[in-house]
Amino acid sequence: MDQVPSPPLPGSFTVSPLFQWETVALVVGLAVVVALVAAVLLVAGLGRARRPEWEDWLASRSAAPEDPDRT
To answer: How many domains in the chain?
Structure first.
């Protein structure tokens, strides 16, 4: 007669803590690569939209006001 395995104790792991760690490492690695590519593209200026009216507005705000008494 075969021995029946005893049931696991309450609170014991039934799955190894490192079960499918390769998949988790692959997903984390892909996320890091995507983040690095996005950062490089943003730094290179590919994520910058051309908005001349916005830039004109900002330039006009930062300009010093003209003094009417100075000629």
So the answer is: 1
Range of the domain at 36: 29-55
37 closest CA partner among 47, 49, 26 = 47
pTM of structure: 0.49
Using the structure block, give the residue that is written with the tokens 């799955």.
15
DSSP assignment of 45-70, as one string?
TTTPPP-HHHHHHHHHHHSPPP-TT-
C-alpha span between 61 and 43 (Å, rounded): 26
Checking if the pLDDT of 63 tops 70, the result is no
Contact 59, 51 (CB under 8 A): no
Question: Does a structural domain hold residue 46?
Answer: yes
Cα–Cα distance between 51 and 21 in angstroms, integer? 46
